[in-house]
Amino acid sequence: MATARLDIRLDEEIKAKAEKASALLGLKSLTEYVVRLMDEDSTKVVSEHESITVEANVFDQFMAACDEAKAPNKALLEAAVFTQNGEFK
User: What are the entry keywords (predicted)?
Assistant: First the structure.
């Protein structure tokens, strides 16, 4: 059950278009439409900012460099400590 509340003001034309879209999708209310859009978009935005996608050849180069590395340098060790201290997520 939803317990949080969001109050917004918007242009009448935007509201009318959103109400029409909501009805065309067979949703019960404008609120259901807005919540659905917010959920889908926020999931996408968070995913885009919390993941990295690289081309296969770039990944292969990265893995080859990792395989060739002898020992982590000072900067890498400091970065590892930084992430373990919870300063980076």
Answer: Toxin-antitoxin system
- Distance of alpha carbon 62 from alpha carbon 39, whole angstroms: 34
Q: Where are the domains of the chain?
A: 12-84
The helix or strand, by DSSP H or E, that contains position 18, with its residue range, turns out to be helix 12-24
- pLDDT at position 42 is 97
Question: What string of H, E and C letters represents the secondary structure of 21-81?
Answer: HHHHCCCCCHHHHHHHHHHHHHHHHHHHHHCCCCCHHHHHHHHHHHHHCCCCCHHHHHHHH
The pTM of this model reads 0.59
Residues 6+ apart with CB under 8 A from 80: 72
